Amino acid sequence: MAMLDINFHSNTLGKHHEFKVFLPETTDMFENNDVQPLRTLTVLHGLSSDHTMFSRYTNLEMYANEHNLAVILPNADHSFYLNMKYGHSYLDHIKEVWQYAHNILPLSKKREDNYISGNSMGGFGAFYVSFNFPELFSKTIPMSGALGVDEDFLNLDWYDFDIQSLIGEHTKIKGSELDSEAIIHRAIETHGKENLPEIYVLCGIDDFLIESNKKFIEQLKSANLNVESQFKSGGHTWSYWSESIRDAVDWIFKDIEVDKSKQIINWVG
């Protein structure tokens, strides 16, 4: 696969920022100009990570190549992918990155060809971004997402991370931009149930977020939204996410046939 590191001027952030892209290659891709736009997965990083982590700690590149799938890896710092109360507008930035990448690269803009996933903070982000912009994504796969969290989350102590910078002076999760139940109902009211993405929730049974993920699933079901889930052995670790990102890609393609006859495979020894 081709791996691109793109640094561009972000109008939403008012500064230069970076993202990474994986592009699958085929044996005949340069033989004519009839390039087929690629299905694309946007993957969002966690609180202690950045846009490079999935290329460093998982085999996402290999899984994507097996499915002729392009991957966009944005960088969103400690934002939780929100338009921060005191900070940058990272929700808008993710849409900006999506649009920028799709305008300069051979990526399909069809909703049915676009998906989003992420781990931990990025799991919340995958849900949050796709339920704010359901016209862009047909499937969302949060992995170990910070979803369905309760008031204890307000006390999260992580280096210079400040939850007030995200949601302001809220003293409760309920009613804030981290309230997954409120986000669900707002998305239904704004976009309609039928226009929201399919959702597949993944979490390790040893993860400290397992119960909140189960709560999130019940919130989706209570809103009469279809949701699939998988809970298997694993914690809040890259060992788990390196497996679950493959499960995510497999789920995306469960009903999609991929032509593998012209793939370029570079890891046969």
Automatic annotation (TrEMBL):
Could you confirm whether the keyword DNA-binding appears in this record? Answer: no
Q: What keywords appear on the UniProt entry? A: Hydrolase
Q: Which GO terms describe its molecular function?
A: acyltransferase activity, transferring groups other than amino-acyl groups; hydrolase activity
Q: Which Pfam families match?
A: Esterase
Q: Which superkingdom, per the lineage?
A: Bacteria
What is this protein's record name? S-formylglutathione hydrolase FrmB
